[in-house]
Amino acid sequence: MKITDVTAHVLRLPEVTADCDGTQDTCLIRIDTDEGFTGWGEVDSAPTVVAAIIEAPLSHQIANGLANALVGLDPMALDVCMAAMAQAANYYGRTGAGSHAMAGVNIALWDIAGKANDRPIYELLGGPHKKRFRAYCSILFGDTPEATYELARKHADLGFTAIKFGWGPMGQNESLDVALVREARRGAGIDVDILVDAGQVWDWKTALTRARQFQEFNIFWLEEPLHPEDVAGYGLLSDASPVPIAAGEAESRYVDFERLMREGRLDWIQPDPGRCGISTMVEVGRLAHRMHTRVVNHSFKSGITISASLHALAAVPHGEIFEFCMADSPLRHELTRERFDIDDEGFVHVPEGPGLGVTIEQDTIAKYRVG
Ligand SMILES: [Mg+2]
Questions:
Q1: 124-362: which CATH topology?
Q2: I need a labelling partner for 230 at 20 to 30 A (CA). Which of 34, 39, 44, 334 fits?
């Protein structure tokens, strides 16, 4: 089999705000082959930058567009394809958007591998260790503590056993920070786990103070309180925090995840397949298992990323919970025919069809495609 075409599809809602909501736009990767199999991937990055990296013309041997590097290769030789992309992006894209673009291609290559073998991806990865995961409902904080209380009530009523609140006004001042978490707990009730995603707002000592203040609300974890580069701060915070610390969504390379786990001493590592690819997510998850660090997906995009996350997590020995993005965007809910509803115990199931096991809604692509 040979790759015949690699294209980027940039989708965007008519209005995009400054909220930290990754479902307002996206970049899909489509790979076609000479045997009729088509693979789809999705990237969580700056969509038009990723599209440029896919489509860039040849500059020279180690500065080439990823499509140029891939066309003509056998998509089943997945590691060879990854090496060809690393070579092409050597000068401009070893990390950041270059790495993210390769992640989207990696998902699409796994989709092809599954379809060509008529097997779900998790089987090709040696799974499943589990076929369903407890879903945590992932939303943003309300603009006020009162609005957060209402959001917590509304989402607890949907049947989730855990809800994460992220970003928004967190970090503006101490009393507001504490009020946001207090109202999240009050709205969710005592039987629902609440998770706090601070959004990179503090230094490690302030984060430690907040971790102690949030302890009385029995939070499941405190996520990304520090800037991603502050690995030393994560180490100090994790050692002293009375609540578990989670991070890792900002990383895309295996070596960076490994450093964050070893030096940041996290309780939870959070790879996003739309930034690191399925292959790296599984490698990171297996390292986490050996290090007795827990692993969970980060996913705040469409059903493509949700499916990629489910397959990868099913191939890791100790997956338990799952980030289930509930942002109210058609790009989250209408890009795949499969909607990944939770069951009556609040669990989400790994898709069973070949490859990712999702069906792409071409009408949704046509409606929101801008590039
Ligand atoms: Mg986060």
A1: TIM Barrel (3.20.20)
A2: 44
